[in-house]
Amino acid sequence: MLQIRTPKTGRAKREVEKRAPKIVETGKKTLILHGTKTSQVLNTVLTEIYHLKKDNAVKYTRRNDNIRPFESGGETSMEFYSLKTDCSLIVFGSHSKKRPDNLVIARTYDHHIYDLVEVGIENFKSMVSFSYDKKLAPQIGSKPFFAFIGEGFENLEELKHLKEVLLDLFRGEVVTNLNLAGLDRVYVCTAVSSNRVFFTHCGLRLKKSGSVVPRMELVEVGPSMDLVVRRHRLPEDGLKKEAMKIAPELTKKKEKNVSKDAIEGKIGKIYMPDQQVGIVPLPNKAKGVKRERREAKMKGDTKKHEAKKQKLEA
């Protein structure tokens, strides 16, 4: 049986609380691993990915002989390192004759492999090869824009999966509001063919345009590379259903007969019961009835008075 050890010191308790599930999760940490053999190009790619995510990434430089993605039993070490470092994203680089400059991006759920995408790196250009004004260099931790150009990201399963993984890898913490002045970078992904994507990182320069919306200029700051999709594995249906669950605290209760409109705002519907006027009883002494009786009485008195006069004259 496994022994459950409870934290005894304050520091250990704080670390356990950080790793505990939260209603609103913070940004995902990324773990960078090396395979048995890596090329110089792949080492540079892994280093620059680490620099792009330096505020929320962990990098291991030791070679890992027992990590073999897409093979049974070859992902155990990845799950162990994910649990050890509390990272939900893993970038694994390896180089072989069959698959040169190979990069595997894995997502985990509850520190178990959720899905995998394997890409090959071609036409790589590092940050050093780009010359630009250093004032335009993006700040660490800033929120990026994403531009996915091409119909392949909507039609092809491989590119749709790659799009989801790249968004998870580089977007950082999910926020609801953004300051426009703090946006200083954009990732541009262009679908060149059915399995090739051109990926580049650009700095964002805001200029005056004579209106409220500023004019934007892109300055390529690197890295830049071609991503060739080789293999990918989608999550299992049961695991996907478990991962997509939403906490009850975050689900809003549906308001009956209430809708929202962009122009009119919040609109409510009121249902009135049928007014059956014919069945409603009238009061016994209505003003109209009183007036009719009074008039009838006055007519009756005048008739009696005239009859009495006629009798007295007779």
From TrEMBL:
Please, one GO biological process term?
maturation of LSU-rRNA from tricistronic rRNA transcript (SSU-rRNA, 5.8S rRNA, LSU-rRNA)
A Pfam family (short name) is Brix
Source domain of life is Eukaryota
Annotated InterPro entries: Brix, Rpf2
Q: Bias category Basic and acidic residues: which stretches?
A: 292-314
Q: Cellular component per GO?
A: nucleolus
Question: For the region Disordered, what residue ranges are annotated?
Answer: 281-314
The protein here is known as Ribosome production factor 2 homolog
Classification from the root reads:
Eukaryota, Viridiplantae, Streptophyta, Embryophyta, Tracheophyta
